[in-house]
């Protein structure tokens, strides 16, 4: 007799049923998903805080109108100017100072008044023992007319990027001093 049993005949079998999920699996998936969602909610702001400054494009630097070129001589003069700053939602204005002069070739440059020794403010010709020099009153650092370091300070005074436009001197970012290198 050639009868087939129901187990051997593939056409008579019922299709496989859906796999049921247990309560334990359901709770595991639900709690795992909720934990991942809450964790992402806590971590994403920290990642954005760390990455956001990298994504902002930095411009070539803003230049600020400081002084008329006709007023610049070969003797350093102190000029103050204001820089508007934006830090998040906080807007402020910083008052900065620059020592501006012409060199022997008529080139205008500006020096930062911040001493490279410990950050005090230097003055021009303010020490009678050392005429025609920048002098730091805090620890006695001395600088040449071009900002080259003479005593105490490890480096020359920094200088501002300068731009001359329409009879005005514009100052930009602070950069290492290149004028003192030419002097040496």
Give me the secondary-structure topology.
Elements: H1 23-55, E1 64-68, E2 77-87, E3 90-102, E4 108-111, E5 123-124, E6 134-135, E7 142-143, E8 149-151, E9 159-165, E10 168-175, H2 179-183
Antiparallel strand pairs: 1-10, 2-3, 3-4, 4-9, 5-6, 6-7, 7-8, 9-10
Notes on the protein architecture:
The chain is α+β, with helices and mostly antiparallel strands and 184 residues long. Helix content is 21%, strand content 31%. It contains two helices and ten strands. The chain has helices spanning 23-55, 179-183, and strands spanning 64-68, 77-87, 90-102, 108-111, 123-124, 134-135, 142-143, 149-151, 159-165, 168-175. The strands form two sheets. A six-stranded antiparallel β-sheet has the order 1-10-9-4-3-2, with no helix packed on it. The chain has a four-stranded antiparallel β-sheet with strand order 5-6-7-8, with no helix packed on it.
Please provide the ordered H/E string of secondary-structure elements: HEEEEEEEEEEH
What structural category arises from helix and sheet content? alpha+beta
Number of helices: 2
- Proportion in β-strands: 25-35%
User: N-to-C terminal Cα separation, in Å?
Assistant: 115 Å
Largest sheet: 6 strands, antiparallel
Order of strands in the sheet with most strands: 1-10-9-4-3-2
What assembly state would you assign to the polypeptide chains in this entry?
A: single chain
- Taken from the alpha-carbon principal axes, the silhouette is elongated
Helical residue percent?
A: 10-25%
Tally of extended strands? 10
Radius of gyration: 36 Å
Mean pLDDT: 83
Give the low-confidence spans: none
